[in-house]
Amino acid sequence: MTAADIRHRGVPVLPRRIRWSAATAAFQIEGARSEDGRGPSIWDRWVDAPNTVIDGSTAEPGPDSYHRWREDVALAADLGLDRYRFSISWTRVQPDGTGGPNTAGLDYYSRLVDGLLDAGVTPFPTLYHWDLPIAVDDAGGWLSRDTAQRFADYSALVVDRLGDRVKHWYTINEPAMTTLQGYATGELAPGQFLLFDALPTAHHQLLAHGLAARVLRGAGAEAVGVANNHTRVLPLRPGDADHAAVTAYDLLHNRIFADPILTGTYPDLSAFGLAMPIRDGDMEIISARPDFYAVNFYNPTTVTAPTGEDNPIPFDIVPTPGAPVTGFGDEWPIVPGALRDLLLDFARRYPGLPPLIVSENGASFPEPDRAASPCDVDRISYLDGHIRAVGEAIEAGADVEEYTVWSLLDNFEWADGFTQRFGLVHVDFESGARTPKSSYDWYGRVIAENRA
């Protein structure tokens, strides 16, 4: 889609009103690693290790939002956002993951919350976006049940300070990716390669969500939910073998994380010879009805039957035939209709499903490090297709109440460092200068047109 095509087509208008948001995460934008008493997280340890980040970067200073948060609030307000999704750094609030609060760290988030409210933007924080304190990791991390209680204690510190003004909360971001990439395959921090032995981390994160939700609601929260990464799983070929691969991957990526919250039970894991470390009362805590269910969606996943007789994994992930791709290449195919189908599958699979939120959706494309007026037509095309897919899902009966772009700012993209840019706003990582891209203006028009 060219710039002329976009102008001719006009912006997507959904069949009913929803809320509009954009997102960031603390480690990816804040910088200020050693300021205000912030402690080290698993991502600090990751970036300090050799050969873990593609470009050798350490997230410092990155967008430096710790010092430039007023600029970011202004960008959110000028865009017309209803809500701004940001995350709170566990180690900035509780440096060792235990004990009392770090007042200076909470002061930062209190200023940010007040700034958003003054600008007319509802703060929608995430309590955990992957920055586990090193001390907690050394004690077992998400493999340890105790981490769930530590997270609940940390949540109490945050809501005690911010709960008088913040009423909408995400508990944990993408427990699926923490389990699958952080503990099963070691692609992300904490970098463990446990394969199926990583599955207890799924249960402990879901338990942490349930315990934190109790704390938040007890402090007057109006809306609490988890934000998970979900994917539409597609077979490479017709036939029973690839269908079995789809079923296996869907279970491990999607259902293990959604079913306990939405049905109170785990899917059957006996085919893998696995069981979750469930104790009495756990499932009641985990399945206490959320006020929404949030879906981070970027791409579908195509799988096929595994090759090799000794392969312990019951699927192979392969490129999606015929699909264009983002800056990540074959790993991130662009199929907007997959988002529509995923949302409708949730609506059909889970009777009584709470309202859905698309809590992250976006794409990275090659862009210059410095740009006076970035014209990111590819990103506009991606967002246009996916927002229209949300509209189609609503038209077909899915109760979607909010859509969120990842990301408001270019930021540190985990193991890919500063090599991938997702932002509606270009960030010069040397100077910190922010320059709205064409997609920023386009998304602002989408918001305005859908309010008219």
Q: In DSSP terms, counting alpha (H) and pi (I) runs of 4 or more, how many helices?
A: 15
Number of domains: 1
How would you sum up the global shape?
A: globular
Sheet with the most strands, sense and barrel status: 8 strands, parallel, barrel
Query: What share of residues is helical?
Result: 25-40%
SSE series: HEHHHEHHEHHEHHEEHHEEEEEHEHEEEH
What structural class do the secondary elements suggest?
alpha/beta
Any idea of the CATH class?
Answer: Alpha Beta
In spatial order, strands of the major sheet run 1-2-3-4-5-7-12-13
How many DSSP E strands?
A: 15
Rg is 21 Å
CATH topology tier name: TIM Barrel
Spatial separation of the terminal alpha carbons: 26 Å
Any idea what the CATH superfamily is called? Glycosidases
Indicate the CATH architecture. Answer: Alpha-Beta Barrel
- Look at the structure and give the mean pLDDT: 96
User: Uncertain segments of ≥5 residues (pLDDT<50)?
Assistant: none
Strand content: 15-25%
Binding site for substrate: 28, 129, 173, 298, 406, 413-414
GO molecular function, one term: beta-glucosidase activity
Organism: Gordonia phthalatica
Protein name: Beta-glucosidase
Main attributes of the structure:
hydrolase; TIM Barrel; 39% helix; globular; alpha/beta; 452 residues; 15 helices; EC 3.2.1.21; glycosidase; 3-stranded mixed beta sheet; 8-stranded parallel β-barrel; GH
Architecture overview:
The protein is α/β, with parallel strands linked by helices and 452 residues long. The chain has one domain (3-449): TIM Barrel. The protein is built from 15 helices and 15 strands. The protein has an 8-stranded parallel barrel, surrounded by 5 helices. A 3-stranded mixed beta sheet has the order 6-8-9, with helices on one face. It has a two-stranded antiparallel ribbon with strand order 10-11. It is globular. The active site is at 174 (proton donor), 360 (nucleophile). Pfam families: Glyco_hydro_1. It catalyses: Hydrolysis of terminal, non-reducing beta-D-glucosyl residues with release of beta-D-glucose. GO terms for molecular function: beta-glucosidase activity. Its EC number is 3.2.1.21.
